[in-house]
Amino acid sequence: MSTSTFIGLAIGGAALLCFGAFLYTIENALRLCSLRLGRIPPWLVVCLIVVPIFGFFWLFFVVLALNRSLAAEYRSRNLLREWRSPRGTCQAE
């Protein structure tokens, strides 16, 4: 095995490990949100992100849904009086 092949495999393995950690973090964040407030099921997020080509576009939807889910969770628990999202300010009621 040549050195360049070994380096390529090491970089690819590190990228897969980082991608797996990213998916695990997103799934846990959605899972920790209350089920009544959850916008998408966590298993669906992981399955559809892995689909080639579609996963790239699905990722944008996931980020927006995660933003809405966390904002709803914060409001329901009264964790913050005011929380700023990219789309504006969410006020806790």
Question: How would you describe what is shown here?
Answer:
The protein has 93 residues and is mainly alpha-helical. The protein has one domain (3-91). It is built from three helices and two strands. It has helices at residues 3-32, 42-49, 54-77; strands spanning 82-85, 88-91. It has a two-stranded antiparallel sheet. The longest helix is centred in the N-terminal third of the chain and has 30 residues, at 3-32. The termini are far apart.
> Could you give the order of the helices and strands?
HHHEE
Mean pLDDT: 79
Cα shape? elongated
Helix proportion: 55-70%
Gap between N and C termini: 62 Å
List keywords for this structure.
mainly alpha, 67% helix
Short characterization:
With 93 residues, the chain is mainly alpha-helical. It is built from three helices and two strands; from the N terminus they run H-H-H-E-E.
Could you give the topology of this structure?
Layout: H1 3-32, H2 42-49, H3 54-77, E1 82-85, E2 88-91
Antiparallel strand pairs: 1-2
